[in-house]
Amino acid sequence: MKLMLKYPLKSHTAWNKGLKGFGKWSKNKGMKFSEETKRKLSIMRKGRVSPTKGSVLSEEHKQKISKANKGCRGYWTGKKNHAHSQRMKNKPWSENRIKSQPPKKPVILNGKEYDPNWREIRQKIYIRDNYHCRECKIKTTSQNDGKSKTTIQCHHIDCNIKNNKDNNLITLCATCHGKTRFKKIDWIKYYKDKVKKEKKSND
Fold first, then answer.
1. In the list 7, 37, 172, 195, which could disulfide-bond 177, CB 3.0-4.6 Å?
2. pLDDT at 1
3. What are the residue ranges spanned by the domains of the chain?
4. Does residue 139 contact residue 151 with C-beta atoms inside 8 Å?
């Protein structure tokens, strides 16, 4: 069932039309309400339903509204946009969106703070090494099935988790990776030499 608005558009006239003391001429313009007044207004307006809520306009009514609004200027027409719009003007949309996004939080694993893109970085290394441990050559898996030998992990050769260059990262299984926690200086030298030798052999 279609509902019509209580007053037709043509016959409805604003009650304060032509009266002084309203709108931009109001004496109360810029007036600040006290917290008590704001609270009372809030209580008074609670549960109030808009008179047009649930109304369905007929096609004829919609056409009348459309004709009435033709030629009306938009709110920002002829006005200077706010500072943010001016700042973003003539910049690529994607760049604006990236800048407006909040900075990514670091990835925390085992109490250590890794790069915010750490998961993407290590996935790239896994693909490069074809999901094989560079030490024992075993095929690793991303699922932790209780067999530490097959669990895939990414190792920082120089033990600096901030250095995420490709030549400083290698794929290891959990067993081989666990060995690097001891005698770190020896393992750093060992894997640096190993990577150099593999690079020369590939060239």
1. 172
2. 46
3. 107-198
4. no
